[in-house]
Design brief:
Largest sheet: 2 strands, antiparallel
Structural class: mainly alpha
Shape: globular
Helix content: 40-55%
Order of helices and strands: EEHHHH
Radius of gyration: 13 Å
Number of domains: 1
Strand content: 5-15%
Number of strands: 2
């Protein structure tokens, strides 16, 4: 993965890659400043969110998650994770 904005990606039903140069590894919260999705994340919370989003893809028969790389669907499915898990 060469895109520094991609945290992780579901490659197949059995494979998720974490981007070593993406926000899973590089996100650092700034005190008093909202992070992604307008939330005040700790680094651990944000990492958990990324993993839960990818788990949604792995469990797509149950969650209904569809491939969303680079599409507005990514935001919608991320909002599903936020509403249920945070």
């Amino acid at each position: 993965m060469h895109n520094p904005t991609t945290g992780a990606a579901t490659i197949s039903p059995n494979n998720v890659f974490v981007n070593s140069k993406g926000p899973y590894m590089t996100y650092t919260p700034t005190p008093g400043k909202a992070g992604p999705f307008g939330r005040y994340w700790t680094q651990g919370q944000f990492r958990g969110f990324i993993l839960l989003h990818e788990l949604g893809h792995q469990l797509s028969p149950q969650t209904g998650f569809k491939p969303d790389a680079g599409s507005p669907l990514n935001q919608a499915q991320s909002q599903q994770v936020l509403s249920v898990c945070f």
